[in-house]
Design brief:
The protein is an alpha/beta fold. Helices cover about 35% and strands about 30% of the residues. It is built from nine helices and twelve strands. The chain has a six-stranded mixed β-sheet, sandwiched between helices. The chain has a four-stranded antiparallel β-sheet with strand order 2-1-4-5, with helices on one face. It has a two-stranded antiparallel ribbon with strand order 7-8. It binds adenosine-5'-triphosphate.
Amino acid sequence: MVFRMSGIVKRFGGLVALDRVDFSVAKGEVMALVGDNGAGKSTLIKTMSGAHVPDEGTIEMEGKLVHFRSPQEAWASGIATIYQELALAGKMTVVDNIFLGREIKKPVLGVPFLDRQAMRKRTSELLSQLDVHVPSIDSWVESMSGGQRQGVAIARALNMDARLIIMDEPTAALAVAEVRKVLEFIKNLRAQGKSVVLISHNIQDVFEVSDRISVMRHGRCIAVRETAKTTPQEIIGLITGAHEVRAAAS
Ligand SMILES: Nc1ncnc2c1ncn2[C@@H]1O[C@H](COP(=O)(O)OP(=O)(O)OP(=O)(O)O)[C@@H](O)[C@H]1O
């Protein structure tokens, strides 16, 4: 497994938001994370990405124990999180967003200057690898569609050498054609051997793109299923607790 969490507990005062959660993702795997509102999905991804420190449990990335105290530490270990709001700078170009904070510089007469040519070349390579089409790499990000912006955010994560990419509801605000595109980006990431955690309320998207599905309920990870061996009905039953009702009745 590229990534493994074991026995993760996270409390907020008296509330146990994560109750001994085990969660893992293999190399080149798309793991969907599903659950009802308040089930603990956001808290879990914030713990994976260094925004929350767990009260108990262990986290391993690429076989090494890690103790993230900040999102920067998680990024440095190769874990990128793409939140719905994306954290791109709207009034900056595609190239500048992809290299924000890690510009390529070259010395000219001993003084470091931005190597725009190298950054433009790398940007075009990343976008074509992912099959992201933007009007121009010099366009402002705010002028682009939601799907194109998702593509830029993913390219930025790859440029930072992310091996595990966590995507929080990436298709929630998108039109149908754009949803297709984002699902293709996710498949491209998998084809490149990257691992993806996909949080989604859209069961159809989950079934189209994931290899396994983890179901959270009341802060616990109650089931993990291989997508090819389950059905939307079973997953919805697990999310809503219908299986508990049936078990209680029998
Ligand atoms: N910072 C916080 N302080 C106190 N309680 C919190 C905090 N963050 C989350 N919680 C609580 O932890 C529980 C899990 O919330 P979480 O946001 O992780 O659920 P979720 O599955 O992501 O839900 P949604 O789909 O609505 O985003 C909820 O009861 C929530 O109120």
